Amino acid sequence: xxxxxxxxxxxxxxxxxxxxxxxxxxxxxxxxxxxxxxxxxxxxxxxxxxxxxxxxxxxxxxxxxxxxxxxxxxxxxxxxxxxxxxxxxxxxxxxxxxxxxxxxxxxxxxxxxxxxxxxxxxxxxxxxxxxxxxxxxxxxxxxxxxxxxxxxxxxxxxxxxxxxxxxxxxxxxxxxxxxxxxxxxxxxxxxxxxxxxxxxxxxxxxxxxxxxxxxxxxxxxxxxxxxxxxxxxxxxxxxxxxxxxxxxxxxxxxxxxxxxxxxxxxxxxxxxxxxxxxxxxxxxxxxxxxxxxxxxxxxxxxxxxxxxxxxxxxxxxxxxxxxxxxxxxxxxxxxxxxxxxxxxxxxxxxxxxxxxxxxxxxxxxxxxxxxxxxxxxxxxxxxxxxxxxxxxxxxx
Length: 396
Known about the structure:
40% of the residues lie in helices and 13% in strands. It is α/β, with parallel strands linked by helices. The longest helix has 24 residues, at 167-190. The protein is built from 18 helices and eleven strands. The chain has helices spanning 17-27, 59-62, 78-90, 105-108, 112-118, 140-147, 167-190, 200-205, 209-218, 252-260, 275-280, 282-293, 298-308, 318-323, 325-328, 353-357, 372-379, 384-392, and strands at residues 8-12, 31-36, 69-72, 95-98, 123-128, 194-199, 235-239, 244-248, 312-314, 332-335, 342-345. It has two domains: 8-206 and 327-392, Rossmann fold; 235-314, formyl-coa transferase, domain 3, CATH 3.30.1540. Strand 2 (31-36), helix 2 and strand 3 (69-72) form a beta-alpha-beta unit.
C-alpha cells in the first residue's frame, strides 16, 4: 500500500538540505513540486560536470532531484504570491517546505500564518542554518565547524577535517523527515496542521551524544582520534599485503577469538587481557598488529576474521561499494528519454512500496521550469498565452 501517493509537497528549495528531504519523499511516492526563482534558480544546477550539455542540468544537481517536478515562480511579484496561493489550494498541497532565510518568509508570502489562512491543515516546514530567529548564511562546512563535527574529525595530531559526506545537510533532512511523519500522524488524528522549524546547527550538534555528556558532565577532552577509538582497542585501519582493512574488537570475547588465530597468538598476553589495558598501550599494540597484517592479504584476513566472528571490512572504493551484492540490488535508476542517459542513484535507506512497484526507477531530475505548462496550464487553468505573458513579465 502506497501511503503517500495522494500527497503533495510544494518545496521552495535549493542547495542540498531540502532537496535531499524531498528526494526521500519522492522515493515514498509523494508528489514533489520544487519551486525555483525564474532567473536565479537553484545554484546547484550549475555545479559539477555538464554531461548532458545543457544549462542548469549539471551533474551535482542530478544526484538528489530525481522523481520530482519543477516549476519557476517569482514570489517577489504580487502575481507570483497570488499564484502560490492558487497552487496551495488547487494542487491540494499537504506540506509546504522552504529553506529561505527567515527574513524572507513574509516578504515572499510563504510564512506559516499566511499559508495557514489558505489551508488550515497545512504542514509547514522551515529549515534554517541557525534557527528561525537567525538570518546567518549557512553552508555545510560552516555547520560542521560550528557544531563541533569538524573538531572530532581527523588525525589526533592533525588539523580538523571536513566530513566525507554532508552530515549537517543530510542529517537535518533525516530529522525533518521524522518530524514530517509525526506531523502527518498528528493531522490524521486531530485534523490539525503544524509548523516545524528545524535548525541545521541543532541537528548537527545532536549527533555529539558522547562528546556532549563527557565534556559537560565530567570535564573530559573529546577531540580527534583518527581511525582509532578512545574507548575500544584494537579498532583501526591496518595496511595489508595488498590493501587496507578496518577491524573493530568491541569486547573481550572478540579479543580472545583474535588472539586464538595462530598469526596473532603472540599478543595473548596478560597485559592485554582487558580493554582498558589495551587502550593504555594502543600505540604499541597497533604497531604489532600492523606488522603482522602486512604479511597477509586482505582476503586472507577477512576470511579468517569472519570465521572467528571478529568485525572486519575491506576499505572499499566507491565502485567496490556499488558492486557489493547487498547494495547493487538496491541502487535506483533514472532514465532521460531526451539524452538517453541512465542515472544510477544511491540506494534508499529502506525499500518503499512505491520503489518496489516501480522497480527502483524514478523519473529523471526535472529541467528548469519543466512542469510550468502542466502545473500552470493543466491544473491552474491558465491559457498558453497567459503563461507566456507571465514569463515575459518575470513572474514565471
